[in-house]
Design brief:
Elements (H helix, E strand, L loop, with lengths): L6 H6 L2 H6 L2 H19 L2 H7 L1 H6 L1 H5 L1 H24 L8 H30 L4 H31 L4 H28 L4
Helix pairs in contact: 3-10, 7-9, 7-10, 8-9, 9-10
Length: 197
């Protein structure tokens, strides 16, 4: 594929080609990614185990883990899918890529700030006295969204340059990494805020 695909590459990634491909071939293409990332993501349990005392002392923060990891994946997949689509139609090149990154950088910062504040408010609405927990969650959302946007773009471009169809694995890589980064960031930020480093 590369940043510029040939018409043969486009045909290989067409819907018609996909529908004609045997199911076993599709499974061989998808399952290695899913199995590998499943095993890799299981290390989240190691991270949570390392911070077990913190999570037990401040149980509220653990209730928001699904929101944190889901938001990271969602925020990163939006630009990632856009880049994957643009790569597939040969719209991304060396001339416009810096412009794309500048725009996405501004969007990432704005999105991270807004979602971080919304998260803080969401925690306060449910638990009005838990300002420190709300701060931990808001800061974590900010960090995860900011990182995930660039990972979403980066995985799509990297896979394309490696001649791997980004549609096969970019979203999977992003979701797995966003989950692990979200859990690690929540634990590290919370340990720092609550003085349990």
């Amino acid at each position: 594929m590369g940043l510029l695909c040939s018409s043969d590459d486009s045909k290989e990634h067409s819907l018609e080609h996909y529908l004609q491909k045997p199911i076993l071939d599709v499974l061989k293409q998808r399952l290695p990614w899913l199995v590998g990332l499943l095993i890799f993501q299981s290390f989240s349990a190691v991270i949570l185990g390392a911070f077990q005392d913190l999570l037990e002392d401040h149980l509220l923060i653990s209730f928001f883990v699904p929101m944190i990891v889901g938001t990271g994946g969602n925020a990163g997949n939006q630009p990632g899918v856009m880049i994957t689509r643009a790569l597939g139609s040969n719209e991304v090149n060396g001339d416009n890529f810096p412009k794309i990154m500048r725009k996405e950088g501004k969007l990432a910062l704005s999105t991270a700030l807004i979602l971080g504040m919304v998260s803080f408010i969401r925690v306060i609405v449910g638990s009005p006295t838990e300002y420190l927990a709300a701060l931990c969650i808001g800061l974590t959302i900010f960090a995860v969204v900011l990182i995930s946007v660039f990972l979403g773009i980066g995985f799509s471009v990297l896979l394309d340059r490696l001649n791997i169809d980004p549609a096969d694995a970019a979203a999977l890589l992003l979701t797995t990494m966003a989950d692990m980064i979200g859990i690690l960031a929540l634990c590290l930020i919370s340990a720092s805020v609550f003085g349990q480093v």
